[in-house]
Design brief:
Elements lengths: L1 H13 L12 H11 L10 H4 L30 H12 L12 H13 L51 E4 L12 E3 L4 E6 L2 E6 L5 E6 L7 E6 L5 E6 L3 E6 L4 E7 L5 E7 L2 E6 L4 E5 L6 E5 L6 E6 L5 E6 L4 E5 L14 E3 L6 E6 L6 E6 L5 E6 L4 E7 L5 E7 L4 E6 L6 E5 L4 E6 L6 E6 L6 E5 L3 E5 L6 H10 L13
Antiparallel strand pairs: 1-28, 2-3, 3-4, 4-5, 6-7, 7-8, 8-9, 10-11, 11-12, 12-13, 14-15, 15-16, 16-17, 18-19, 19-20, 20-21, 22-23, 23-24, 24-25, 26-27, 27-28
C-alpha cells in the first residue's frame, strides 16, 4: 500500500507541469479577445476577463467593498518612422556641443534644410521640446536658479534696500565760485530752479530743461554775492551782497523789484517766512524785513557778537534758528505784527559747539527738532529739542568742518557736508545717526548743499568750483503715486504789491 501512496504523490507533483485549466486568462489572451470583441460590443469588452477569474470578490471575514477593476490600455508609444528616430538620436548625442548663435537666421536655414532633405521639420523629430525662457534673477540675487521655476514678478515692496550710487548723477561747472565757509551761495527753488552765486553774478540752472539763465550782476567788480534764498513759491529770489544790501528779484521777468538797505556789513545768510525775510550780517545783527511795505525793516535781533553765518526758519514758521561765528546757537520766536524795534529775547540759546555754526536744518516731520553742525575743529552734529531745550543726541563725525545739513524726508535721513580731511557728503539714518552711505568726489571742501523740490536729489557745491547732483533719495513708484494724491496745491503767500 505504501508503494501506491508514493506513486500518487509522484503523479500529483507531475501535474504542476500541465496546463492550469482554472487559472485566469493570460495577458495576450485578454488583449486578443478584447480587440476581437471591440467592434461588436465596445462597452462589454472591458469586462470579459472578470467572468473568467475565480478569485473571490470578498475577503472572508471582512466587509470591504470591491473596487471594480478596469482593463486599461498600455502606455502610449508615439508613431515615428526610422528617419525621425535617427534624427532624434543625433540631436540627443549633440546636446552638449556648443552651437553658434551669433549668425542671424540660423533656425530658418536649418528648418529649410530639414524639409528639403527629410521631408519634415527637424523640430518635429525631437522627443521632448520645452518652450519659453526662464525669468532673469532680480537685481541683487547671486543665484539665477532662485527664479528659474518662478514666473511671478517681485513686488516693489519686497525689493531689497535701495541702491545709492557713489558717483554723482550730474556735474556742473561753477567758475569763480568764492571759497568762503561763511557764505551761503546755493539754493534750490520749488519750481526746480537751482540758483548759484559766482563771485558778483547769479546764475540759474533749470533742472527740468537743463537750460542756464543769467539773472544779475553787481555793478562794481570788487563787490560779490554773499547769500541766496528762494521764496516758498519759487517766484522771487533774495540776494545778499557784500555792500550791505538785500536785493529782491522777480525771476520770471528777470527784474529787480527792490533793494533794501539796513545792515552795516555784508549779508551772509537769508531765510524766508512767508512775507518776512530775515537776514544775518557780519556785524552779528539779524534783521526782519516785511517785503510788502515800504518801511521794510520791522525788527532787529542782536544776541550774536560775531558774523551770523547760519539762518533757518522752522517749517511751521514758529521759530528762527541762528548760528554765529561766536559758537552760539539761538532760537527766536516769530516777530509780532506791528511790534517794531529791537528784540533780543531768545527762546533757547546753546553754547555746546566749539566752532562756528553754519549748518542748520529743521526736521520736516518733527517741527520742534533742530539739527546743527559745528565748524573748524568741532566735528559734532547735535540734535536739539526746542521745546525742552535739551540735546537729544550728539555725533562726532571725525571731520574738521560741518558746513551744511539737510533732512531727507523720503527716507527719514540726515545729510551732512564736510570739509577737511574727507571733503565728502554723508547720509545718516535718523534718529539713530548711523552711517548709511558716503558720497565722495569733490576735490576741495564742500561749502553748501540743498535738496531738490521732490527731495530725491541733493546738490552740493565745493571749493573745487563744481556743483554735483546726487540722486540718492528716489522714492518707490507706489509710494510716490500715493504721495502725489495726498499733495495739495499751495496758494501764494505774497499777495500784496512788493515795493
Amino acid at each position: 500500500m505504501a508503494q501506491f501512496g508514493f506513486e500518487n504523490d509522484i503523479h500529483s507533483i507531475l501535474k504542476l507541469d500541465m496546463p492550469i485549466t482554472n487559472a485566469p486568462m493570460a495577458r495576450w489572451q485578454r488583449k486578443a479577445s478584447s480587440s476581437a470583441l471591440s467592434s461588436l460590443s465596445p462597452v462589454k469588452s472591458a469586462n470579459v476577463s472578470q467572468n473568467s477569474s475565480k478569485t473571490p470578490s470578498k475577503t472572508p471575514g471582512k466587509n470591504i467593498k470591491q473596487t471594480p477593476s478596469k482593463v486599461r490600455g498600455d502606455r502610449f508609444i508615439p508613431q515615428r518612422n526610422g528617419k525621425q528616430m535617427d534624427v532624434a538620436s543625433f540631436l540627443l548625442s549633440k546636446k552638449n556641443e556648443q552651437t553658434d548663435t551669433s549668425a542671424t537666421g540660423t533656425s530658418e536655414i536649418q528648418k529649410a534644410w530639414s524639409v528639403s532633405l527629410n521631408g519634415y521639420n527637424i523640430e518635429d523629430a525631437k522627443i521632448l521640446h520645452l518652450g519659453g525662457k526662464p525669468l532673469n534673477a532680480p537685481e541683487g540675487y547671486q543665484n539665477n536658479l532662485k527664479v528659474l521655476y518662478s514666473q511671478g514678478t517681485t513686488p516693489a515692496s519686497m525689493k531689497k534696500t535701495r541702491y545709492i550710487s557713489s558717483t554723482p548723477d550730474r556735474i556742473l561747472d561753477a567758475p569763480d565760485l568764492r571759497n568762503d565757509f561763511y557764505l551761503n551761495l546755493l539754493d534750490w527753488s520749488s519750481q526746480n530752479l537751482l540758483a548759484v552765486a559766482l563771485h558778483n553774478s547769479v546764475y540759474l540752472w533749470d533742472a527740468t530743461q537743463g537750460d542756464i539763465i543769467f539773472l544779475m550782476k553787481m555793478e562794481r567788480d570788487e563787490d560779490y554775492i554773499c547769500s541766496l534764498s528762494w521764496t516758498k513759491e519759487g517766484s522771487y529770489l533774495a540776494v545778499g551782497t557784500s555792500d550791505c544790501q538785500v536785493q529782491l528779484w522777480d525771476v520770471d521777468n528777470q527784474k529787480r523789484l527792490r533793494s533794501m538797505a539796513s545792515h552795516t556789513a555784508r549779508v551772509g545768510s537769508l531765510s524766508w517766512n512767508e512775507h518776512v525775510l530775515s537776514s544775518g550780517s557780519r556785524s552779528g545783527h539779524i534783521h526782519h524785513h516785511d517785503v510788502r511795505v515800504a518801511e521794510h525793516h520791522i525788527a532787529t535781533l542782536s544776541t550774536h557778537s560775531q558774523e551770523v553765518c547760519g539762518l533757518k526758519w522752522s517749517p511751521d514758521g514758529r521759530y528762527l534758528a541762528s548760528g554765529g561765528n561766536d559758537n552760539l546757537l539761538c532760537v527766536w520766536p516769530r516777530p509780532q505784527e506791528g511790534s517794531g524795534g529791537n528784540e533780543s529775547q531768545t527762546v533757547q540759546c546753546w553754547s555746546e559747539h566749539q566752532g562756528a555754526i553754519k549748518a542748520l536744518a529743521w526736521c520736516p516731520w518733527q517741527s520742534s527738532i533742530l539739527a546743527s553742525g559745528g565748524g573748524t575743529s568741532d566735528r559734532h552734529i547735535r540734535i536739539w529739542n526746542v521745546n525742552s531745550g535739551s540735546c537729544i543726541s550728539s555725533l562726532d563725525t571725525q571731520s574738521q568742518v560741518i558746513s551744511s545739513l539737510a533732512f531727507a524726508p523720503n527716507y527719514k535721513e540726515l545729510v551732512s557736508a564736510h570739509g577737511y580731511a574727507h571733503n565728502n557728503v554723508v547720509i545718516w539714518k535718523y534718529p539713530s545717526l548711523t552711517r548709511v552711505a558716503e558720497l565722495s568726489g569733490h576735490e576741495d571742501r564742500v561749502l553748501s548743499l540743498t535738496m531738490s523740490p521732490d527731495c530725491s536729489t541733493v546738490a552740493t557745491v565745493a571749493g573745487d568750483e563744481t556743483i554735483r547732483l546726487w540722486k540718492s533719495f528716489e522714492v518707490d513708484p507706489v509710494k510716490k503715486k500715493a504721495k502725489e494724491r495726498m499733495a495739495k496745491p499751495t496758494s501764494g503767500v505774497i499777495h500784496q504789491t512788493i515795493r
